[in-house]
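Section 3.1: Structural characterization of target chains.
Under the original work plan, the team committed to producing a structural model for every single-chain target entering the pipeline before any wet-lab resources were allocated. The record below documents one such target. The sequence was received from the expression subgroup and is listed exactly as submitted; it comprises 377 residues.
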Amino acid sequence: MFELHITTTELILIVLFASSALIQLLYYLVFYLRAGMYRYNGKSMKTEPVSVIICARNEAENLASFLPSVLEQDYHDFEVIVVNDCSDDETEEILKKFTREYDNLKVTTIHKESSLRHSKKMALFIGIKAARNDLLLLTDADCQPVSKDWVASFASSFTKKTDFVLGYGGYLKKKGLLNKYIRYDSMFIAMQYTGMAIAGIPYMGVGRNLAYRKTVFLKNKGFGTHLNLQSGDDDLFVNLLARKENTCVNLAPESFTRSIPSGTWKEYRQQKTRHISTASHYRGLTKLLLFTEPVSRLFFYTLFIVLVLLTNLYLPLGIVAGIVILTKIIILAQAQKNLNEKDLLVFSPLFDIISPFLNVSFLLNVAFKRHQYYEWK
């Protein structure tokens, strides 16, 4: 008869492994599944006017390529405000050309002062102040709406109770493994913030595709509570004020935007470092939820390998790991279909393993470069 001998240390490791597997399943089933299962129907037939705000610093080429797709939206009443923030390329000339062609374009310029450095928040604040409408739709100069109904889709999301609408901002598909990882990471983060928002715990949005009310921004003194931070113009503002009652998620296909991804690992690391630097300022519950999932994932994969090497529990370990991994693949497949990122599924298991390790390296980079200045663009 087969006898099983397990040491106290092995028992502790088995309990930790089982616990981490359970936590992984809970996150995927309670939060991440919602991004794949969510079906958006316009909340309102009202057609409030909209102000689209874009901040641009040395974005002449991107504005020439993408701004027309914003200006030519199929919506009855909207303006586009571009804040030209200290550009020294041909941004000004490009914008002058477009102002002659489009009546709905308004340009505001911040002139360069050699002794003054400011974050994107100043440019965004100036754009918001210049907006004539209450509904503000934010995107970036290197972003392109996938549809002419982008503005209409966001406008229909607002009801009297809605202050925030969170959208999906993906990245353009290009060659290379880095591009696939960037797109996967963006998709996974969207699964997190939209899934948690649908579950009633909104905590962030992305400035590439985010809408909120000007009255809410001004009433709460805008970025006042975190104006000293270089980043956080999108996520910290949402984290501070978005709640279950006033927040909506819009995952309609026509509401998506696509942005130009980082072309090198160095650029991507700088971008992620800048974004992660704001996480310590999130609400306590948000920090706990965002910390627990990747830590449990690290434990899950690490302990699986350790237990396979230390014990002969191959079958039960394989069953537990198989259930978790298969659940992840099924949920990721549905989310990728919903977010139109279908070609990433084959890489998802690999990215699922390496992403927490990469994020640890980004956190360490933040810790050791706490006082570094990051360019906002």
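The CA atoms of residues 205 and 235 lie 5 Å apart.
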